[in-house]
Amino acid sequence: MTEKQTNKFIDFNKIRSEFPILERKINNHKMVYLDSAASAQKPKVVIDTLENAYLETYSNVHRGLHWLSEQSTFKYEEVRKKAAKFLGAKNENEIIFGSGATQLINLIANSWGGKFLKQNDEIIITVADHHANIVPWQLVSQKTGAKIKAIPVDENGEFNISSLKNIITKKTKIVSVPHVSNVLGTIFPIKEISRLAHEVNAICVVDGCQGAIHLPVNVIDVDCDFYTFSSHKLYGPSGVGVLWGKSSILNDMPPFIGGGDMIDNVDIESSTYADPPHRFEAGTPPIAEVIAFGSAIDFVQAIGMTNINIHEQKILKVFTEKLQEVKGLKIIGNSKSKSGVISFIFENAHPHDIATILDQKGIAIRAGHHCAQPLMKHFNINSTARASIGIYTQEHEVDDLINGLSTVKKLLG
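Above: the chain's sequence. Below: its structure in token form.
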């Protein structure tokens, strides 16, 4: 699907109206949903597609010759094509579906890492990574003897490419980084990171969970080797993740999970395996959820990811400027290249107390370490409050947040 050209007249208020849950009241207050980085709300078209997949065509895929199975298989595989186009991939066979980005990063670590990593090889991550892009590499390093190195960020949350240049060596086999930090909002220079990885014959893995939801992505231009993200953050159902990988690499990887649908031939003693992507998709998938995810892709591409990015950058600018004026509030992460989230600490209030008080006013934020404990330790803090934006976020909602913080100050100050 071709993305619409940038259009400043897109009515984002109308787009917001397509999300039924946002009309709800929470604790007798209008809902202010500022937790999209954790999981985005769903437009009605996605909800309807999910329902219709169960009501009209549900059956298992890839295994039946009857009409329902053929219909489900066709719709399911159409989403693979949509996901490929969404990421700018060459063909749909480079797209693997999983339960989420977490499972798919584990797939890379266990399948590629388990086969090719050896004693004293190096895996490079960043201090800003989500635990899903840290723990899988720890597990594979324990099995293989590979060593993990972490690239820092500065006091503003900026990533300096020279930090990677200083740490990468000929022993480096994997460079695995976030596209966008889920805490700092920092946008990482993934194209340059990929280039540096390839200079030492390493592969580059990009955790795109916070990137693909805010920014246009073209994996061919970036020239990474793997890119993954989750449906539920792109306004689709939970339980679905997408992994893109270069065909030349996928073809050389063994299965991660064994079972039905990923085989070529099975004997008692041994088996041969299907070609990618099915080699990596054992068992019955979340059929209706994948089909509904296709509607989520259609939804955002009809608006245009460039348009979404422009809109969200305007919202982010307003939020940042107004929150910077709040006495006693400190934003954690002030990169010049930023997207999606604003993490902050406020007065002496614990982030959990902040979130609880705001919830009484119908304002949903996230509080905690955000599955990024190494980053918290890097900044010498235990947790932050986090407001994150989505396609439906409105500029005036920062005023609701600030008014809520004034109540926090009164109650806890």
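Residues 67-87 form the longest helix (21 residues).
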